[in-house]
Amino acid sequence: MRSLFFGIAVVLIPFGAEAASLTLRVNTVALPVAQMVARGAQRVPVLRLDLTAGCGSDVSVEKLRVRHDGMGDRGDILRLYALFENRRVSTLAMIDRGEIAELRLRSFALKACERTSINIAADIAPEALSLSQHRFFFLSPSDIDAKDAVVTGNFREDRTVPALSIAPRKLGTITLQYLSLPRAPSYGAGRILSRIRLEADGEDDHLISAVTFTNDGSAKNSDLQNLSIVSTRGAPLSQVVSRMSGDVVRLVLLSPLLLSKNGDLVLALRGNVRARRRRTVRFLIKETSDIEASVRTGR
């Protein structure tokens, strides 16, 4: 009996041959925490993923399923997210009843043969239970969704690394307020695109090291250029970033800014507007951890 195919060239590929050329090697490392972490702490690194793409093709990483264990309630952890070069590259996720947080990565890919690392960070709830302990891990290759790639590596809960422990101390808080602009952003150089006021409560002095702005409008990428943070008098306070990454720009301050307890800081986002008129600009601080701050200790 003969099969007929009209106008179709049929090539038989051995099952699994295409997938075999698309591989991702994963090495998971539990990051030891040197001391107990205060309640309300943010961007606490808990895991590192060392990723190596096979040389057959580029690899896209789409989802990470982080598992939680330990002598502490999942509600102690406000959210988990992935950081690449200190930039958030995933959605934020809470730990569900199955003790899993599913992080969806945004356009994260490795070129063939490339090696890189991703950190998993946690925000601690201000009302977390003191002295509770938490561990984070990946259980199997299926916890790393790399689309069509075959994932291999070490997947286990490393109990040789001390668990993350919550200290009784509660960190002071920073409140964000959006301020009005002197004028609506228009085409041209050196436009003020956003103004914010940061206010500290009476608990701690804080050092602000970086701020991430997200444009909730339609302008993206090179529509806005040469972005930086400046003072109310226009003095430069941060590095200059040539363009947004999608709708996000992370600006690292030239030196940490002191936000004293019961004090405030006013910061402005400045940049060149190169977008067409119908492109809109509305910058927000999307998450509390987008204001990167540490508590000042000593004098």
Would you mind describing this structure in some detail?
Helices cover 1% and strands 50% of the residues. It is mainly beta. It has a 6-stranded mixed beta sheet, with no helix packed on it. The N and C termini lie far apart (89 Å).
What's this model, at a glance?
This protein has 299 residues and is mostly beta strands.
- The succession of helices and strands, N to C, reads HEEEEEEEEEEEEEEEEEEEEE
Largest sheet: 6 strands, mixed
Could you give the count of β-strands? 21
What global shape is seen?
flat
Query: Strand order within the widest sheet?
Result: 6-5-8-3-1-11
Q: What is the helical fraction, as a range of percent?
A: under 10%
Broad structural category: mainly beta
Through-space gap between termini: 89 Å
User: Counting H and I runs of at least 4 residues, what is the number of helices?
Assistant: 1
Low-pLDDT segments = 1-19
Radius of gyration: 23 Å
Q: Mean pLDDT, rounded to whole units? A: 90
Can you give keywords for this protein?
299 residues, mainly beta, six-stranded mixed sheet, 1 helix, 21 strands, 1% helix, 50% strand, disordered N terminus
Topology:
Blueprint: H1 17-20, E1 23-30, E2 37-39, E3 44-53, E4 59-69, E5 77-84, E6 87-88, E7 100-110, E8 115-124, E9 133-137, E10 144-145, E11 150-154, E12 164-170, E13 174-179, E14 188-200, E15 206-215, E16 224-230, E17 241-243, E18 248-259, E19 264-273, E20 283-284, E21 291-295
Parallel strand pairs: 1-11, 2-12
Antiparallel strand pairs: 1-3, 3-8, 4-7, 4-9, 4-10, 5-6, 5-8, 9-12, 13-14, 14-19, 15-18, 15-20, 15-21, 16-17, 16-19
